Amino acid sequence: MTNMKWTLAHSPVALDALLQWYPLFDALVPVVGERRMWILSHAISTRSDCLICSTFFRRLLIDAGLPAALVSGAPPKGAGADDLLDALACAVIARRIHAGVARAFPDPYERDAFGLRMAIWA
How confident is the model at residue 4, as a pLDDT? Predict the structure, then answer.
């Protein structure tokens, strides 16, 4: 048992939340992609003030090719931390679309009245 799980064992609610997270993460990766799940996990960790967790997910994002200064930096003036995380998610998906490896959900996607694609990309 890891130190984190041992520590959380003293809080049944926290331990239950942690143990439920793994199957949820695994179920969502095929839908939204691993990097987007890392960004979501980083956002949750940051908002819940879990320094160990947010550091872990920040390192994954940096190792995946996002600039360290961007991932670790403060959001621009007038933007919140959630805005920065949204921008990081968009950057990851833009790279996947450019590389031709992104998937649309639903596939095939529909278009709106303006001809824009109505899909979630992962």
Answer: 64
C-alpha span between 51 and 45 (Å, rounded): 7
Buried b (16+ CB within 10 A) or exposed e, 5-22: eeebeeeeeebeeeeeee
Extents of the domains making up the chain: 3-121
Return the pLDDT at 91.
Answer: 80
Return the number of other C-beta atoms located less than 10 Å from residue 92's C-beta.
Answer: 22
Q: Enter the pTM of the model.
A: 0.51
Q: How confident is the model at residue 90 (pLDDT cuts 50, 70, 90)?
A: confident
| SS3 readout for the chain | CCHHHHHHCCCHHHHHHHHHHHHHHHHHHHHHCHHHHHHHHHHHHHHCCCHHHHHHHHHHHHHCCCCHHHHHCCCCCCCCHHHHHHHHHHHHHHHHHHHCCCCEEEEEEEECCCCCEEEEEC
Contact status, residue 105 vs residue 122, Cβ threshold 8 Å? yes
